[in-house]
Amino acid sequence: MALLEDPAAKPSGHTAISFEVQDITAAIRDLGTRGVAFEDYDLPDLKTTDHVCVLGSEKAAWFSDPDGNILCLHENLSA
Hints:
A 4-stranded mixed sheet has the order 1-6-5-4, with helices on one face. The chain has a two-stranded antiparallel ribbon with strand order 2-3. It is mainly β. The protein contains 1 helix and 6 strands, in the order βαβββββ. The radius of gyration is 13 Å and the shape is globular. The chain has one helix at 24-33, and strands spanning 15-20, 42-43, 46-47, 53-55, 58-64, 70-76. Helix content is 13%, strand content 34%.
């Protein structure tokens, strides 16, 4: 696998990638100590509490990378 830089690339307006974690609260806390700022939403179909939204059988939280792409953490609740 390779990750290549594209100088002409523009930030994605939607979630570009999601990373599965075992404990989303711990992952948010850990990344927060490293300067990552998580998004909070209060929309009709998407509301976060302490940066976390419960979506059916998973929890999710979003943040942006330095280029403005939206990234996600998710925890599977059914596992």
